[in-house]
Design goal:
This protein has 389 residues and is of the alpha/beta class. 29% of the residues lie in helices and 15% in strands.
Length: 389
C-alpha cells in the first residue's frame, strides 16, 4: 500500500482547517511530499492558503548549519517575501512577534525516532507557545523511520531535562510526531489547541524503506534511512571524546578514536554476539569535528537484520569497549551541550546519570538493560493511549 503523508492528506481534503486563517509553517529540508515538492512552495502557491510566516528548527530551513550548537538568525526571504524565523538561535520557542501575523501554525518536520533528535522538542515548545498565544497547532504526520513498534532505552528523568529531552520519553520511543504531540499535550498538560492530520497507508511495522517514499536529509548528518536505524545508539558517543563519525561520509555508522586498533575492537564486539549486526574494522580521517584531520581507528556498523537489531544496546557496547581500550585517553565530554551548561552531555543524552555510573562501575550489558526495564514497560503502557495507527 502506498503511504500518503499528512502533508498530502491535508492538501487533498483538510484545507478547511486553515480556511480564512493566516498560516505559519515550521519546516526543514525534508518537509516535502512524495514528489519532492516542498511544503513552503506548496503553501505559497496554493490559492486557499494564506502563508504569512516561516519558521525553522535546528540546522535551519535549508539544513545548512552542519553541527550541534550552531545557531542561525532570522532573515527575510526574497523569493517568498516572507520572514524566516529561527527556532535555534536567540530562542527555541516561537515568540509573540513570530506569531503576531499567524492564526494557525502547521508543523511538518521529519523525525528519526530517537528522543535526542531535537525536532520533537521544537514541537513541544511550539505547542506551549501556541497555547500561550491562543493559536492552533496542526501536525502533519510523518513516518517513524525506524518503525512504530520497537522501544528501547532509558526513560528521561525530569531532573535531566534539556533540549535533547524535555519530557519523559524512552530513547527509542516508537511513535510518530503526531502521536508524540498527543502524548506530550495530554500527559504534561500543555493543553494546546491541536489537530493531527494522519497519514494513510502507514503501518507500525514499517521502516522508512518500506514506505516507498523518497528520503530527504532531515539534518546534515542523517544522510540515509540506515543512519536513522543506528542513530539511537551511536548518538550516545556524542557524550564522549569518541568520534561518532561526523566529518565522514557515514556519520553514526562509523565511529572511532586514536587509541583504537580496529581489528582488536571488532574481535571483541563479535564475541559479544549482538543481534542483527556485524562490524568491520576501519581507519578514519574526519574532515571536521572530533579528531579532525587525524587518523583514528574504529568500526563500521553493518545492520544485517533491522528487526532484531538493538541500536541502544549496540551503542552502549561500543561505548564500553572504547572506554576500556582507551583507559586514561577516554573521557566524557564536558558541558555545554545543547544549552545545558552544568550536567554532563552523556547524562542528558541518557536522561539519567545512572547509565554513566553503571559504565564507570564496569557493569555488564545485561545490567545496563535491566536498569531501564521497569520504566520502559511503564512508558510502553502509557504510550498505548496515544497511538493512531
Amino acid at each position: 500500500m502506498t503511504v500518503q503523508l499528512g502533508l498530502e492528506v491535508f492538501l487533498d481534503d483538510q484545507l478547511g482547517l486553515v480556511q480564512n486563517r493566516r498560516v505559519g509553517v515550521i519546516a526543514h529540508p525534508a518537509s516535502t511530499n512524495s514528489k519532492l515538492e516542498h511544503v513552503q512552495d506548496l503553501f505559497f502557491k496554493h490559492p486557499c492558503i494564506n502563508l504569512t510566516t516561516i519558521m525553522g528548527p535546528q540546522h535551519g530551513i535549508q539544513g545548512d548549519t552542519q553541527d550541534n550548537m550552531i545557531e542561525w538568525d532570522d532573515y527575510h526571504d526574497p523569493f517568498y517575501d516572507l520572514p524566516i524565523y529561527s527556532l535555534y538561535g536567540k530562542t527555541r520557542s516561537p515568540t509573540q512577534k513570530m506569531l503576531q501575523n499567524v492564526d494557525v501554525v502547521v508543523f511538518d518536520l521529519q523525525d528519526v525516532g530517537a528522543r535526542y533528535y531535537t525536532y520533537i522538542h521544537t514541537l513541544t515548545l511550539a505547542m506551549e507557545s501556541c497555547q500561550r498565544e491562543g493559536k492552533t497547532l496542526i501536525v502533519l504526520d510523518r513516518p517513524n523511520p525506524i518503525n512504530g513498534i520497537d522501544t528501547e532505552g532509558t526513560v528521561l528523568n525530569p531532573q535531566f531535562s534539556s533540549f535533547v529531552g524535555l519530557h519523559p520519553l524512552a530513547i527509542r520511543h516508537g511513535m510518530t510526531v503526531g502521536e508524540l504531540a498527543l502524548y506530550l499535550n495530554s500527559e504534561f498538560q500543555i493543553n494546546c489547541p491541536l489537530e493531527i492530520v494522519k497519514m494513510t497507508g502507514w503501518t507500525r511495522e514499517m521502516f522508512f524503506s518500506d514506505t516507498q517514499l523518497p528520503w530527504v536529509l532531515p539534518s546534515p548528518n542523517m544522510p540515509t534511512p540506515e543512519t536513522a536505524i543506528v542513530y539511537p545508539g551511536t548518538c550516545l558517543l556524542e557524550g564522549t571524546n569518541i568520534s561518532e563519525g561526523r566529518g565522514t561520509t557515514r556519520p553514526f555508522e562509523l565511529s572511532g578514536a586514536p587509541w583504537i586498533v580496529p581489528k582488536q575492537i571488532v574481535e571483541k564486539l563479535t564475541q559479544m554476539d549482538l543481534p542483527g549486526v556485524v562490524f568491520c574494522p576501519v581507519q578514519l580521517i574526519p574532515t571536521f569535528h572530533k579528531w579532525a584531520n587525524q587518523r583514528i581507528g574504529g568500526v563500521h556498523i553493518h545492520v544485517t537484520d533491522r528487526k532484531i537489531f538493538r541500536p541502544i544496546l549496540t551503542g552502549l557496547a561500543l561505548l564500553q569497549l572504547y572506554r576500556q581500550m582507551g583507559r586514561t585517553q577516554f573521557s566524557w565530554k564536558s558541558p555545554p551541550y545543547e544549552y545545558e551548561y552544568d550536567k554532563l552531555p552523556i547524562d542528558i543524552l541518557c536522561g539519567t546519570d545512572k547509565i554513566r555510573e553503571l559504565i564507570e562501575a564496569d557493569a555488564t550489558l545485561d545490567e545496563l538493560q535491566n536498569s531501564w526495564r521497569d520504566e520502559l514497560q511503564e512508558f510502553r503502557e502509557i504510550r498505548q493511549k496515544y497511538l493512531l495507527y
